[in-house]
Amino acid sequence: MTTIATMFTGLVETTGTVAAFTRGAAAWRLELAAPALAGAGPAGVALGDSVAVNGCCLTVAAREGERIFFDVLEETRRLTNFSALAPGAAVNLERALAAGARLGGHFVTGHIDGTGAVEVFEPRGKDHYLRVRGPAGCGRWLVVKGSVAVDGVSLTVAEVAGDTFAVWLIPHTLGATNLGGRRVGEAVNLEFDLLAKHVEKLLASRAG
């Protein structure tokens, strides 16, 4: 049987609210209030489904009413902005891309490369300007007009300076995702373009 890797698009379906994030004997347990995804039928998630939470691919471990539960490894918590999650926090949610579905963003794996710190977030005209400083060395995966996923949101890179990049956010993105509530100094999950990482590896293998 062929196994197909889970993929996302970076087009957030809805947001959820953290109800609890507690440490269990085997893993952390993340409980989200997510009415739009917790319902029964084709619109709702099932046990074992993959969901990108702030861009991080997690597996649905349980569902009760309007609540969805995920098990989170300590490593995942440490390497993402999950370490700052608290009850009441909004998180971006996207179910895995279905075969044959329209791809409107870019290919996102749900594997976070690291976190970045918000340096500037301000309105400029009707849009908002967001500048993020990423982890050391990430600049090699960034190119103007290329793609980056910020908290699971597919965005187009507008500026690059070393390991810092900027994007523009339209009013719809601010209203449909949790990015509208971000503040300077906060951490955001980052996933850089998959193609850039593959090209880097191919070039390195040739050079070697």
Helix content: 10-25%
- What's the average pLDDT? 91
| N-to-C span | 35 Å
CATH T-level fold name of the largest domain? Elongation Factor Tu (Ef-tu), domain 3
Number of strands: 12
- What is the chain-wise order of helices and strands? EEHEEEHEEEEEEHEH
Low-confidence segments, ≥5 residues, pLDDT <50? none
Task: Estimate what percentage of residues fall within beta strands.
Answer: 35-45%
Give me some keywords for this one.
single chain, 208 residues, mainly beta, Elongation Factor Tu (Ef-tu), domain 3, six-stranded antiparallel β-barrel, 4 helices, 12 strands, 40% strand
Question: What would you note in describing this structure?
Answer:
There is one protein chain. The protein is mainly beta. It has two domains: 82 residues, Elongation Factor Tu (Ef-tu), domain 3 (Beta Barrel); 94 residues, Elongation Factor Tu (Ef-tu), domain 3 (Beta Barrel). It has a six-stranded antiparallel β-barrel with strand order 1-2-5-4-3-6. It has a six-stranded antiparallel β-barrel with strand order 7-8-11-10-9-12. It is globular. The model has no long low-confidence stretch (mean pLDDT 91).
How would you summarize the topology of this molecule?
Layout: E1 14-23, E2 28-33, H1 35-38, E3 50-53, E4 56-64, E5 67-72, H2 74-79, E6 90-95, E7 114-124, E8 127-133, E9 147-150, E10 153-161, E11 164-169, H3 171-176, E12 187-192, H4 194-207
Antiparallel strand pairs: 1-2, 1-6, 2-5, 3-4, 3-6, 4-5, 7-8, 7-12, 8-11, 9-10, 9-12, 10-11
